[in-house]
UniProtKB/TrEMBL annotation, chains A, B:
Positions contributing to L-histidine binding: 83-85, 113, 127, 131
This protein's name: ATP phosphoribosyltransferase regulatory subunit
UniProt xrefs under InterPro entries: aa-tRNA-synth_II/BPL/LPL, HisRS-like_core, HisRS/HisZ
Annotated signal peptide: none
Gene Ontology terms, MF aspect: glycosyltransferase activity; histidine-tRNA ligase activity
Record bears the keyword Membrane: no
Pfam families: tRNA-synt_His
Gene Ontology terms describing biological process: histidyl-tRNA aminoacylation
PANTHER family, alphabetized: HISTIDINE--TRNA LIGASE, MITOCHONDRIAL-RELATED, HISTIDYL-TRNA SYNTHETASE
Taxonomic source organism: Alteraurantiacibacter aquimixticola
């Protein structure tokens, strides 16, 4: 016998057992089917890459959050991916650099990070996403927000809400509208993140305080933001937001929190976070960005459906199981599988239909209740 | 601009671009659907585990072939999985220890190993498989061989052949039939692997030479093996082989190579290797074994479809793409997606249907050829 403690999994890692694995697999399949139907082609980058390559493609992606190890073959440092977006950016810049733009790619796969935190203790996640490469326009953003909503609906999410943000808000306003020296901007961003009016004043960003109140339901918040933007520095952004919101109005509850930057380390003018009823935390996040290295504009999103799996797994159907007794009619079994039955074959007389979770058994070529 | 060499992937790792990713995703989906229809429930173990736990579950699984690294959280060594079978054994022994037997589980996921070799340079593989836990009988083996064939057929493999082996052949014969001291058995196994009659004689295994000729088409080879097994030590095994072969006769070309041990480091009485037309090397492998730690009998197989992907990807259809001009009829687009069309939405006047790979465009609510 082995030491039972050797069977425990490391903190933040888990086995998905049948009910939960079925929910995860179905969610992945349904979300990917929606992306495929909207013209996004799947790519599959590898689980590990050179650390340096991972770091190049995305400014905000910290390789220090990745498991890293030396490759005995190349003697270079490899990293286990913590994000697939950066890998898709690499593919767009290399293997698919000659493909026509806009280039629509999607992906699904496991990602791992060294440290979970209290809010999100998981260290391994399923990441499902899509990237529209070659455009960061409002039209592109509208397509991607709607696609994220449609994919999540197909995956079983309900009560979807989308929170918009303007990741480069401070930089945009700091040039003229509310002048702010380069070296003060980080502090102002931090106080905006903290929603701390006093802190903003201390940081020399008193002019930014009204932004703290331009949040909430989309239409109201946008109006407040328009009033703040007297100089019109934000006008193209606000018009873009309006266009995106008009496209998905009625599909989701829309809110605006223009200074929210958490999770938007590499996005440019537009970002969004998606929530769903009964699902703890954000279920997805996306926005516009420039691909590291080439600077090509892109718009994308990632879904992290682990908590959605938790929310729906109890209702996930594993399908009806049909017990096939010893010496059963094999062609009837094949026919019934074709009708959607899941068959469970007896290996010996000891096998019991009910104990094996079968609701029916094959009798006279037909499924009869056990 | 980044250093272009930083974008190269490590040796043995690759991006799957759309054509190849679509083939891999379809193969995974079709093979998993077959396993599900035969009563196998999916599980999803994590990508990384404690090295010690990986090592416990499977005798033949060498953690020195895995990427390993220290977990800053637990300060213990973790390993990136190179095999999922051992993880499923752990699940059977822990989270599903109380589930009724036989327990049917299946899985699909990526596995990674440190070193490729000349025959198989890939360091990351897709592994798809099924484990029947609680039985290593001929009935269980027959079910699993047939399931492997059915799954591969659904995945698009043709001209399937299955090569049977008896992994514990030497141990079984060495007790009485062809007595052989414990310390000589390894050498005899090696010479049998090498198919070297002279080597066998030198190793003191002259009596084993006839085994080298009991190979080839199943019925002939089994008859030769029966003739060699005068003492009857193999009789239950040969009967089992016969039973398995009878079950899948007509579904695949069957061969027997009773002393083949390559890839069967942890199997017990029965092993099999699967090949398919046009696919380089083995496409799958399985057999009976005892789960490490608990010693519970089990029968399983793993498919490694990477070369099957290579063989079929050129024929893989990505589906017909339908261009949606600016201001298109959105309900018509939804309806056509429901009919299987993949739509590609125009973002601006510059977007060109043909350049974006669209065969049709939406015009008057209908798909018209471009």
């Amino acid at each position: 016998m082995s030491d039972p403690t050797s069977d425990l999994l490391p903190e933040g890692l888990e086995d998905r057992l049948p009910q939960s694995a079925a929910a995860a697999a179905r969610i992945e399949r349904d979300a990917m089917a929606v992306m495929g139907a909207h013209g996004f082609d799947r790519v599959r980058p590898p689980l590990i890459e050179f650390e340096k390559s991972m770091a190049t493609r995305t400014d905000g992606l910290m390789t220090r959050h990745m498991f890293r190890f030396v490759d005995p073959r190349s003697l270079r440092t490899l990293a286990l991916r913590s994000d697939i977006t950066a890998q898709v950016g690499r593919i767009a810049a290399t293997g698919l650099s000659d493909a026509p733009r806009p280039l629509r790619l999607c992906y699904a796969g496991q990602v791992v990070r060294i440290a979970g935190d209290q809010l999100e203790p998981r260290r391994e996640n399923l990441q499902i996403g899509a990237e529209l490469i070659g455009s960061d326009s409002a039209a592109a953003a509208g397509e991607m927000v709607e696609l994220a909503i449609t994919a999540l609906e197909a995956a079983g999410a309900t009560g979807i809400s989308v929170d918009f943000t303007l990741p480069d808000l401070v930089d945009t306003l700091a040039a003229e509208t509310f002048p702010l020296a380069e070296e003060k901007r980080d502090a102002v961003r931090r106080e905006l993140d903290a929603k701390d009016a006093g802190g903003l004043t201390d940081a020399g960003g008193e002019a930014y305080i009204p932004l703290l109140f331009a949040t909430g339901p989309f239409d109201d918040a946008l109006e407040k933001l328009r009033a703040i933007d007297a100089g019109g520095a934000l006008s193209s952004r606000l018009e873009g937001l309006q266009q995106i919101a008009d496209r998905v109005r009625g599909r989701a509850r829309l809110t605006l929190d223009p200074s929210e930057r958490h999770g938007f380390e590499y996005q440019s003018w537009f970002g969004f976070t998606i929530f769903a009823d009964g699902v703890r935390g954000a279920v997805g996040r996306g926005g516009t960005y420039l691909i590291g290295g080439t600077g090509e504009p892109a718009t994308g999103f990632s879904l992290y459906p682990e908590e959605l799996v938790e929310a729906v797994k109890a209702q996930e159907s594993l399908g009806n199981k049909l017990f096939l007794p010893l010496g059963h009619d094999r062609s009837a079994a094949t026919r019934l599988r074709g009708q959607g039955w899941r068959t469970v074959e007896a290996l010996s007389d000891a096998d019991d239909a009910a104990a094996l979770g079968c609701s029916h058994l094959l009798d006279g070529g037909e499924a009869k209740p056990v």
